[in-house]
Design brief:
Length: about 90
């Protein structure tokens, strides 16, 4: 993927994607919601589906401080320590 910012000089940046697991069976999933309306509800439903249909072992919900900032360091640290896969969600 190449990102271009039209407000600055043209400088291409490459983004490396995280490795994807072959299966979600037995995995621990972090759900990170951004505080927008219904983001927690949609992620709860996604968590249920991941458990029922994909064999996910555990789902943990994390809540950002607000929608316009990245996840704070405490969330990042805990996700790295206790989860195998992460899903970020938005609402509205």
């Amino acid at each position: 993927m190449e990102l271009l910012d039209p407000t600055t000089e043209t400088v291409a940046q490459s983004i490396a994607y995280a490795a994807r697991p072959d299966s979600l069976e037995g995995k621990r999933v972090a759900l990170i919601e951004n505080t927008k309306f219904n983001s927690d509800r949609i992620l709860d439903k996604i968590g249920q589906i991941l458990k029922e249909e994909y064999g996910v072992r555990d789902v943990q919900m994390f809540r950002k401080k607000n929608a316009s900032v990245p996840a704070h360091e405490e969330i990042v640290t805990e996700v790295k320590k206790s989860c195998d896969v992460m899903v970020a969600g938005i609402g509205d």
